[in-house]
Structure formats: C-alpha cells, structure tokens
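DATA SHEET
Item: assembly model
Revision: 1
Owner: S.N.
Input lines:
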Amino acid sequence: MPGAAAMTAERARPVVAIDGPAGAGKSTVSRRVAVRLGYTLVDTGALYRSVALAAKQADASWDDSEAVGRIAADLAERGAIELRPLSDGGVSVWLDARDVSRAIRAQDVGQGASKVSAVPAVRDALLEMQRAAGRDGGVVLEGRDIGSVVFPDAEVKFFLTASVGVRAGRRFDELRGRGEPADREQIEREVKERDERDSSRAAAPLVQPPDAELVDSSELSIEGVVDRMVRRVREVAEAMQRPAGG
Ligand code: DC
C-alpha cells in the first residue's frame, strides 16, 4: 500500500493519545487506562527526561541546543533508551542498560527535560522511536504532542488538564510521598513556568488538538477520568472490529 497508507495506518486496535500539561494526572491515568484495556503504555516524557539526564551526565548544559541535539541523536541511533513494562502496568526506564526510573523523576531533571524538549533536533531524534512503539495500536501514549504531531491519526485522543492550583498540589503530594523536600509555592511557580515554556516553544508546542476530547481532572476523581476514557476507547475499538459498511 503506497503513499497515504503510511499516515493512515490500518490497525486492529486503536492508538490512544493522552496529552496535557504537567501534573494533570496523566501518568496515573495513562497507566490505569492501559492496564484496564490490556494495552502497552508509552511514557514519552520519560524519553525527554532521559535525554536531559544523559546531558547532565555528560556535563552538557541543557541550554546548549547543539550539544543536547547531538546527545539525543546518538541515544536514538544506539537504541540506548528503553521502556520496559512492569507488572503494575507502569514502565521502568533504562538508559545505557542502567535503570534510571528514579533518577529521571528528580525536580531538576524535569526542568531539564522541559528545556531539551524545546530543541527541534531532540524532538526529531525521539519521533521515530515513539512512532515505532505505537504503530500497531493497542497502545496508550502519554505526552504533549502525541495527538498533534506523533500520531495525528490516533483513533482516540484525549487532552487531560486541571487548574494550576490542583496540579501544583498533586506534585507537592507526590514529592512529599517520596520523602523529598517540597515547597508548595515554589512548585506552583515551576508548574506555571513549565506550562509557559511548553506552550510557547516553536517546536511542537503543547496544544489541544481540535479532534481531542477535553477532560478536566480538577473536579473528577482519577477513577472517574479513567472510567470515562476506558469507555470511550472500548467504543472505538469495537467499531474498528466491525466490518466496514456492516
Ligand atoms: O510528562 P513529563 O513531566 O515527564 O515530561 C517532561 C518534559 O518533557 C515536559 O516538560 C515536556 C516534555 N515533553 C514533550 O515536550 N513532549 C512529550 N511528548 C512529552 C514530554
């Protein structure tokens, strides 16, 4: 099948895109949705975080676009970043055969990820990796530009958001839960800063694709959000199973 078939893939099961700003509950929601559906989870933020960590380890500045672009291209070429499924439905993240699942969650690496993700060469390097991971469907990809850039033809797209106050509160609880120091006001400032940077960058900014379903988790419980998404994906998956015209 030549030409257009490359964009409009024929899959047996849907690609589910879950995009949205930091702290909207994307990781928890995506993991639970993937578990309930028996789909593979692809945490694309973990890829950007891994690039930021690799840059830090190489003593490269996150503001040095050329250096981080080179680092990302090298990691992609060597297949040095790996997402391995865990029994709880989550993924562990491996960088050069070392488990960096914890290291990439540090606050500073999150800020670094936001910076390196604005570099077009970094986005290019990670694009193919993400497309390869989702191509056959039966997959939940969570990120910022899945429905807009990585899989514009995703069968199901959600844009998950929540108010800044609610999102900062969740980050705060998460850090405290891990026994890490956390300052509520500083977190709120960082959430705003990160939103600003993620939405205003030239390369694949955070936008709600027009065909994505908006889900606001400020007032819905996580379970409520998950139920709604699972129901929607099942409807689409069933429709894909029905013979055309039948
Ligand atoms: O979701 P997260 O906090 O793990 O993402 C880390 C950073 O990576 C975030 O600042 C935005 C960026 N990112 C991106 O630009 N595109 C994606 N698809 C996923 C994450």
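QC remark: The chain has one domain: 14-237.
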